[in-house]
# Entry
Amino acid sequence: MSTIEKYTASLFSLEGKTALVTGGATGIGFMITHALVSAGARVYIASRKLEACQQAAENLNNLPGSCIPFGADLSTEAGVLSLAEFIAANESVLDILVNNSGRSWGAALEQFPWQAWEDIMTLNVTAPFTLIRELKPLLSSAGSADDPSRVINIGSVMGIEPHGFPAYSYAASKAAIHHVTRYLSNELAASHITVNAIAPGPFPSGMTAFFTADEKLSKAVTRGVPLGRLGRPEDFAGLVLCLCGVSGAYMTGAIIPLDGGMNSARTLGLEQGIG
# Structure
């Protein structure tokens, strides 16, 4: 191994670490899973679509780490608790928790349904909070003053600024998970657990397929990104590895925009897309 490789590994290697990524089989979740497994971590992934998790695990079996699939419906308390119980039954510590599972709903204000608001809040806010609560003992057992355990919540640029289409409950849920992140970063610091959030702009995923598959809409969204493009897997990978490696050990309570500059853009409007 060259000097450069040794230095890079000292910063970003996750060999020997154990992680859980919810919604880790597709979209942004798979970008995160791929990064963690590539850096040597043993990564559990979970979603209600077990087949998708199994396929993702198979696709990653030639990388340095490993991937273990699990099926759980995280929109229910029973599903969240079953996942926490599964992790606790198989691991004595958990170094990394990435709360990525989420969904959105778009509708005009006059037609926006009560149930859509409730469903989005449950999956996007209640579920990650509950999972952190249930897995705190494993996270605390893994962490130390010099190398704390890491919790990463996936928020959105829409939780920072009113960008995008009328997805009212989604935007509110992401603002909420940002604040939960700040709140828990203080409460869990003494347990050697850092809590940060990533607030992405537009990345290709199932949630954004409605505009990435439409050339006109895609161009409109991209025009709203100051850097002039959608996010790429390596954009997410670099930030996640920074947060989970030694370079992230002194960062907590941060809401990190990963949006090509959308959070500080000078103009607002529907043409700026969705995060």
Remarks:
- Confidence is low (pLDDT under 50) at residues 268-275.
- The first helix runs from residue 3 to 12.
